[in-house]
Specification:
Layout lengths: L2 H6 L4 H9 L4 E2 L12 E2 L1 H10 L6 H17 L24 H5 L5 H26 L5 H5 L9 E2 L5 H20 L10 E2 H13 L6 H11 L2
Bound molecules: iron/sulfur cluster (2 copies).
One iron/sulfur cluster binds next to loops.
């Protein structure tokens, strides 16, 4: 997504924030243990991250974040790193624009959290198999099976069950569909990856014709062999 495309999504941010506002607040210890993956998000959410997150950073934070984003992406198959949007003081640099999964952390009840983790492990295993067959990359099983642990410290004002969480996601997916059918976005690309999409954006701003994310993907795969 380019910045001009993100600007077309601004009229949808009010609805986006309405969904976010329905998530129960809570008391967080700020350990950042939940900020060790690249989260998934919708198109409208990514527009919000660009305009109200990345574009609002100071020059120093912007440069440091961009550098962390490329490092995170290139090393993620073998190493667990903090999310590149996490500042040195363990605070989220795009806190006001952070996507839904970040806002939900600590809020699901234990059964919902465990069911979600089970699904993530199955998906990670499938991805590892694809990498092994297609690219000849054998990932460390500890890395494949690693998931963010259940947070015992966060104290939500209320927990959410699977159905309530699914409804929040559904509303964001509907919002993405609305933006698409109203011509505000050129693709209906739900479930994107924050780091990957940010790399796409950065490449589009650098004028690096001929270099795309596939080029970085090839390097990432080579580095992990
Ligand atoms: S939600 Fe939990 S794991 Fe995440 S920063 Fe807060 S206390 Fe740490
Ligand atoms: S975007 Fe912010 S809250 Fe979400 S994982 Fe990254 S640092 Fe943590």
């Amino acid at each position: 997504m380019k910045l001009e495309e993100a600007n077309k999504l601004v009229p949808y941010f009010e609805s986006l924030n309405r969904v976010y506002s329905e998530i129960p607040n809570g008391t967080c210890m700020g350990c950042a243990n939940c900020c060790t993956e690249s989260v998934n998000l919708t198109n409208v959410e990514f527009g919000n991250v660009l305009i109200n997150g990345l574009m609002q950073l100071s020059e120093v934070d912007y440069k440091a974040t961009v550098s962390r984003i490329f490092r995170f992406y290139l090393s993620e198959l073998g190493t667990t790193n903090y999310c590149p949007f996490l500042g040195d003081d363990k605070r989220c640099l795009i806190y006001n624009a952070r996507p839904l999964p970040c806002r939900l952390f600590g809020t699901p009840d234990r059964a919902t959290f465990d069911a979600n983790i089970k699904q993530i492990k199955i998906q990670n295993l499938k991805y590892a198999r694809v990498l092994a067959v297609k690219e000849g990359v054998k990932l460390d099983l500890n890395r494949v099976n690693r998931t963010i642990p259940f947070c015992e410290s966060y104290q939500p004002e209320a927990t959410l069950d699977g159905e309530a969480i699914q409804m929040l996601y559904d509303r964001l997916i509907n919002l993405d569909g609305k933006a698409y059918f109203e011509g505000a976005s050129s693709e209906f690309a739900i479930n994107g990856d924050l780091v990957g999409w940010t790399i796409d954006y950065l490449l589009s701003t650098l004028g690096l014709e001929g270099i795309n994310r596939e080029w970085f993907y090839d390097i990432k795969v080579k580095l992990s062999k």
